[in-house]
Every structure is written in C-alpha cells, then in structure tokens.
Specification:
- This protein starts with 15 loop residues before the first helix and ends with a helix.
- It contains 23 helices and no strands.
- Helix 4 (107-117) crosses helix 6 (142-166), helix 11 runs antiparallel to helix 12 and helix 19 (442-471) runs antiparallel to helix 22.
- It has helices at residues 16-43, 52-86, 92-100, 107-117, 123-130, 142-166, 170-178, 183-194, 196-212, 215-219, 225-235, 240-262, 285-319, 328-357, 362-376, 379-393, 401-425, 429-437, 442-471, 474-479, 487-496, 500-521, 523-526.
C-alpha cells in the first residue's frame, strides 16, 4: 500500500523575545572587555607595581578634591534649585536656563578660561594691573581645580534637586508648623529628609564627575588618579602601573555607586490625601535683590566670564595679527565621530531597551547593570583597559576609528537607553499584539509600530550621546588613530603649550556646537 507523502518538517521559528535577547547580548558583549581587564588588574597583582606611598598620595589628592567639589556644589546647587523652584523670584525661567548652560562647558575649556584670565598676559590680570594692582599669578593645584570643577558641577546638582523641590508636599510642613515647630526645625526635620535622595543623587553625579575628570586637573597641574594614569601611560613602556591605577580608580567609582544605592531609603513621603502644590515662598524686595544677586554672581563666574575671556583672546589674536590656525579639520572630525557614535548608539540600543522593558527579568537587570557599571567607570580607565585588551587579544583594532566609536557607544549607551526605555514604556503592548494578529511579522511590527513611537526617546538620547562624544577627551587621547585630532584635543594641547588664542577659538566652536542642541533638546525638562 502506497503511503501518502508527507511534507518535510519545518524548523520552528524562535519566539521574538529570543532574538531580542540574542541581539542584546551581542550589543553588551563589548562592554565586558574593559570591565574584565580592570577586574583582572585588581586580582592579578598589577596594582603592586605602583608604590604604596604613590597610591596613598593620589587617593588623598583625589578624595580631597572630590569632597570639596561635592560639598560646595551641593550648597550652591541646592540654593539655586530652591530659589527658582520654591520662591516667587521673578524671571525664574531665564534663571534656570542660565544656571544649566554652564553644563555645556567642558572642564578643560573652563581651565583654559581661568588660565587665559590670569598671568602677565591674562585678560582680567591686565585689567587689574591697569587699575593699579599686581599681576595675578597663574593658578594651579588644588584650589584652581576646585574652582573650575565646582562651577561646572553646580548644574548637575541643580538638575537633580530642582524637580524634588517642586514636588515637595506642603501638607507635611504645614502639619509640623501647626505643632509649633519653627522654620529652621521644619527645614531640618521635614523638608531636608524629603530631599535626601535627590541630594544624594546629585552628590553621586558630582563625585563621579570629579573622580573621572582629566582635562582640568591636567591643565591645572593637580595630581589625581586620572592625571597620573595618563603620565604613566605616556612616559613609560611598561603599561602595568597605568593599568593598576586605572583598576583602583574604577573600583572606587563602583564603590561610590554601591554606597549611593545603600543610602536609598524605603520610606515614603506621601499622604492618603490628594497632593496639592504649595504656595511659593514670598520674598521681600530685599530678598529678591539678594536672590538675583546670588544667581547673577553664579552665572557671571560660571558662564559669562569664561565666554568673555575666550572671545577676548580670539579678538586679541586677530587684532595683533597673530596667525590663528583655523580648526576646521578638527571641527569636521569632531562632528563626524560624534554623529557616527550617535547613529550607532541609536541602532544598537533597540534590543537592550526591548529586553529591559518588554521581557524584564534578572538577566535583563544584569545587562542593564553592566551598562551602568561601565558608564560610572572614569573614561580614562576604560581607555586604558581597552588599550591593554586590544594589545593582548585584538591587535588589528588598536588605534582604529572602529575601536574609538565602539568604546564611545558602550560608554555612553545608558544616556540613550534611559530615554528609549521611557518612550518604549509608554507604548501599549496591545498595539503590537494587534499588528501581529493582522499577520505582520515581529520585524515589521517593530519597524511600523514600535520604532516610530520610540522615536522621541531615541532622538533625545542620540542628541545627548552626540554632545557627550563631542566633549570627550581622555578616551580620545588614548584610543584615537594617529593624527586624529578633535576640537577637545585641540583645546587641551593648545592650552598645555600656552597657545591660548588657538585654544580659545577651538573652545568657542566647541561651546557653540554643544550649547545650542543641549538647549533645544532639554528645554521641556529645564523650564517648567
């Protein structure tokens, strides 16, 4: 009896979430390389190649600078956030924009402005001599680095604290005052505890920023871990001391993040009653003058003076006939590598956003934690780790544009992951299910439904990646191809050699490119 021919069995297609997991794993795999190398540097004894006295000196210098910058930034940033978010100070929207704008000033540009304002040829120093004073010496060391990093870090605290101040529940404060507590006691026992988490988050941001800064401490000649890592790398054939210092610095950064998570409270600050917005604190005419005087001084020192110094140096060079080498080639390279990094990040973030939003579990948390762990590691440590990794296992990638862009992407991925997850979280899964029920494949559903709705988050995050890549200095110095100079490197090298006119022109171009997109992208978050 002849049997009926049966069709050959087809391979069962993998479920859509499996493909997302595979792609997300591939995307996050490069992040394991620098983390693995840095972990190896801790456990292999490479740290012992650095004298213990040198380690203690760098730890003391870095810790002192971090504590000083963080505490000062918390005071100034907390005060500015309270003034623009809790009082009836006029012109608060303008004040908010002016306070946040210095965030676009890289630390090495701030150092350039400080050096260009002082010394025998400094703009402010020359004005002071004209009025009968003595020449203001070039600042260097701890106090100069503290000043520059504090002025740049204040916007980080302001951004972290201002939303929490706006959302304070006035009912709790009113209840405390009704029980006879004075204003000072209400602030310490009711208001400040509600702001603890936002203040801690701001302190963590400033601490990590100070820990990872290379430009300001290098130009102002203050020995911290980042400056020592670069000097060890550039001045010695043996790379083990540089790797050891990078491993220690990375461990400190991860410890700071862990400590911040441990300070988060399980307490809640809400009542069963509907939340209402508190009335703004009314300032007297004198209080308004003092408030704007404080904000005006802050904006003048952190924004107006640096920009004025840069403009003055460019004008001085042009008027005196000094040949100003126009940094158009550096501008083109900066724009190209920043745009390429933003585009690659926008493509590769999709699978990571999908698994951490749609298919979240402990493995998704591990992927996301790995991304944020690398984001918290200082960039000079990541660059040092990738040099060691490529020399050991991937020598063809050493000092290539592909490696540079890849490191940028894995370092800055959380900047686009956060906005992308937020946009994806607002997309109802029922829309995707409806598309699948109509016969659309998972790929066509993602391209036709999910991706367009994720677009706002992707664009916002890509713009932030673009801006951060534009400002990046230490990783670019270590990993760039031979002869590949960006605006950031142009500012750093010109300032280090005393060519302030050339550095000022590149710094102005960098600020112009960085400030305008930042203002456009974040205007809804900054002005409320």
């Amino acid at each position: 009896m002849m049997g009926v021919a049966r069709p050959a069995p087809r391979l069962r297609a993998l479920p859509p979430n499996t493909w997302w997991w595979v792609l997300a794993g591939v995307v996050m795999l490069p992040a394991a390389a620098p983390l693995g190398v840095l972990a190896y540097g801790l456990v292999s004894g490479v740290v012992t190649t650095v004298p213990i006295a040198r380690l203690l000196e760098l730890a003391a210098n870095t810790g002192a600078l971090g504590a000083a910058v963080t505490s000062t930034s918390l005071i100034i940033g907390g005060a500015s956030a309270w003034l623009v978010s809790r009082t009836d100070l006029p012109g608060k929207k303008l004040a908010t924009v002016l306070i946040i704008t210095p965030f676009a000033v890289p630390s090495f540009v701030g150092a350039l402005a400080l050096l260009g304002a002082t010394g025998a040829d400094g703009i402010i120093s020359a004005a002071w001599v004209w009025m009968g004073g003595d020449v203001i010496r070039y600042p260097s060391g701890f106090w100069a680095a503290w000043l520059v990093l504090t002025l740049i870090s204040v916007p980080l605290v302001h951004l972290a604290v201002a939303p929490a101040v706006r959302s304070l529940n006035p009912t709790l404060e009113e209840a405390a005052r009704g029980l006879g507590a004075g204003r000072l006691r209400v602030f310490w026992t009711v208001t400040l505890p509600q702001l603890r988490q936002s203040l801690t988050a701001g302190a963590l941001l400033v601490g990590l920023y100070t820990l990872s800064d290379f430009g300001a401490v290098s130009l102002l000649r203050y020995d911290t871990f980042t400056r020592a890592i670069y000097l060890e790398y550039a001045g010695r054939v043996d790379r083990r001391p540089a790797l050891g210092l990078a491993a220690v610095l990375a461990a400190v950064a991860v410890l700071l993040v862990w400590l911040e998570r441990g300070t988060r409270t399980r307490g809640v600050w809400f009542t069963a009653r509907p939340r209402r917005t508190g009335s703004p604190v009314r300032l007297s005419p004198g209080g308004k003058i003092l408030g704007w005087g404080f904000l005006g001084a802050l904006v003048t020192v952190s924004l107006l003076v640096p920009v004025a110094v840069l403009i003055a140096w460019v004008m001085r060079g042009l008027i005196s006939g000094v040949l100003v080498s126009q940094p158009w080639a550096e501008l083109g390279r900066s724009m190209w590598v920043a745009l390429l990094t933003a585009l690659v990040a926008a493509v590769v973030v999709a699978p990571v956003a999908m698994v951490t939003t749609r298919y979240r579990n402990r493995w998704a948390g591990l992927l996301e934690g790995g991304a944020w762990a690398l984001y918290g590691v200082p960039h000079i440590a990541v660059g040092m780790a990738m040099i060691v990794f490529t020399l050991w296992l991937a020598r063809p990638l050493y000092q290539t544009l592909m490696l540079l862009v890849g490191v940028y992407v894995v370092m800055f991925l959380p900047q686009i992951l956060g906005p992308s997850r937020d946009s994806l979280g607002r997309v109802s899964p029922s829309m995707e299910e409806a598309s699948r029920s109509l016969g659309k494949s998972p790929f066509r559903t993602f391209m036709g439904i999910t991706l367009p709705l994720m677009a706002p988050g992707l664009l916002s995050g890509a713009a932030l990646v673009f801006l951060t890549t534009l400002r990046e200095l230490p990783a670019t110095l270590l990993l760039r191809p031979a002869g590949f100079e960006t605006l950031a490197i142009r500012v750093w090298s010109a300032t280090g050699e005393g060519f302030y006119t050339q550095g000022a022109l590149a710094g102005l171009l960098l600020l112009l490119i960085a400030a305008l997109p930042l203002a456009v992208v974040t205007r809804h978050e900054l002005i409320r």
